[in-house]
């Protein structure tokens, strides 16, 4: 730099992982650490705040701190990044430290959307339960036994739907947390076989044929509960979005140090424009059919998070009106801590 900050202060700035700049009393840049040089593309010249920062707000911030001698904090967006900027007086002038809050802001937005969507989704079954309970009370007073039984069955269905929604919300929250992930040997083939047996009765009620090709064993390191969530949600969708007289094909094969699970149905398929969004929370391609089958709009989001926690991948191929294939690849060995997503 043309004007040099004191060595201890320069060393302190260089040690910071966040971008940091130092302007002297004449409002000339005297020190910039490596992250700030990358962020603001500055070299060794004694730039002014406006030349470096390119923001009237930040330029005024430097002036305010220099005039008042008091630290000031403000938020600003630079090249799409949301930065929390702290400006503070030091002996050599004014130091600015920038903390990237982009990821945090995105997470906060996701949480707000999640709460809003969850509240909206809960209103329907709660309202249904309240309405049915009122109707049941009146019907019982009238002594209409047949109608009372009908209302009681509908009340049980709404309560079951609400319970399922709450259970899936809790599962999704757990999967999204960054807690310790315990991996133990799990026979994925056994899990798949058990889940196929579970859905056969429901499939048979709609004359849906379920065919499978499974190895004797398929051991992966993971959580049996989470692996069961993956399989059960894929199979439930394959039945719920199928057609009467349709078919489901389930295959589990070894591929390059992983096990590949493919669930193919002959159902309604997914429009091309929806394929990129079906793993989002509460996203439904066919809202009416989803609710009619008891769907919450969380199943595929749960699948995605559970697969990612195991270091795997999930993909979908679909032809509208002809069916869909969901493919999950899960590594035999658990991912290293550094490689695990979210």
Q: Please state the CA-atom Rg, rounded to the nearest Å.
A: 29 Å
Report the sheet-strand fraction. 15-25%
Q: Specify the helix fraction band.
A: 40-55%
Number of DSSP strand runs: 12
- Terminal CA distance: 40 Å
CATH architecture of the largest domain: 2-Layer Sandwich
- Return the string of H and E elements: HEEHHHEEEHHEHEEHEEHHEE
Largest sheet: number of strands, sense, barrel closure: 5 strands, antiparallel
Helix segment tally = 10
What general form does the structure show? elongated
Mean pLDDT: 83
What does this structure look like?
This protein folds into three domains: 94 residues, PAS domain (Beta-Lactamase), CATH 3.30.450.20; 72 residues, Helix Hairpins (Orthogonal Bundle), CATH 1.10.287.130; 161 residues, Heat Shock Protein 90 (2-Layer Sandwich), CATH 3.30.565. It starts with 6 loop residues before the first helix and ends in an 11-residue tail after the last strand. 46% of the residues lie in helices and 23% in strands. The protein has ten helices and twelve strands. A hairpin with a 3-residue loop joins strand 11 and strand 12. It has a five-stranded antiparallel sheet, with helices on both faces. The longest helix has 41 residues. The C terminus is likely disordered. By secondary structure, it is an alpha+beta fold.
Q: In short, what is this structure?
A:
This protein has 342 residues and is an alpha+beta fold. It has ten helices and twelve strands. It folds into three domains: 7-100, Beta-Lactamase (2-Layer Sandwich), CATH 3.30.450; 106-177, Helix Hairpins; 182-342, Heat Shock Protein 90, CATH 3.30.565.
């Amino acid at each position: 730099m043309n004007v040099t900050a004191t060595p201890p202060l320069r060393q302190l700035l260089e040690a910071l992982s966040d971008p940091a700049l130092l302007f002297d009393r004449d409002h000339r840049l005297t020190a910039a650490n490596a992250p700030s040089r990358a962020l603001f593309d500055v070299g060794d010249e004694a730039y002014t705040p406006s030349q470096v920062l390119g923001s009237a707000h930040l330029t005024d911030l430097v002036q305010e701190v220099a005039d008042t001698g008091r630290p000031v904090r403000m938020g600003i967006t630079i090249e799409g990044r949301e930065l929390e900027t702290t400006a503070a007086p030091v002996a050599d002038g004014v130091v600015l430290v920038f903390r990237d809050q982009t990821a945090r802001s995105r997470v906060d937005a996701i949480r707000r959307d999640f709460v809003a969507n969850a509240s909206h989704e809960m209103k329907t079954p709660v309202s249904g339960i309240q309405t049915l309970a009122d109707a049941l009370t009146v019907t019982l007073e009238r002594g209409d036994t047949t109608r009372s039984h009908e209302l009681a069955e509908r009340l049980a269905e709404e309560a079951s739907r609400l319970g399922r929604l709450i259970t899936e919300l809790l599962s999704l929250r757990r999967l999204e947390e960054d807690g310790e992930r315990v991996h133990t040997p799990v026979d994925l083939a056994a899990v798949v076989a058990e889940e196929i047996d579970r859905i056969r009765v429901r499939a048979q009620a709609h004359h849906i044929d379920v065919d499978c090709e499974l190895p004797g064993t398929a051991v992966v390191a993971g959580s049996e509960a989470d692996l069961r969530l993956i399989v059960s949600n894929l199979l439930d969708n394959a039945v719920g979005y199928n057609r009467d007289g349709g078919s489901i094909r389930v295959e589990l094969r070894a591929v390059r140090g992983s096990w590949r699970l493919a669930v193919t149905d002959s159902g309604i398929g997914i429009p091309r424009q929806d394929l990129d969004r079906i793993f989002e929370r509460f996203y439904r391609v066919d809202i009416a059919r989803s609710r009619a089958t008891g769907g919450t709009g969380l199943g595929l989001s749960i699948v995605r998070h559970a697969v990612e926690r195991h270091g795997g991948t999930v993909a979908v191929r679909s032809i509208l009106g002809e069916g869909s294939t969901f493919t999950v690849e899960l590594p035999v060995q658990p991912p290293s801590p550094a490689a695990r997503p979210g």
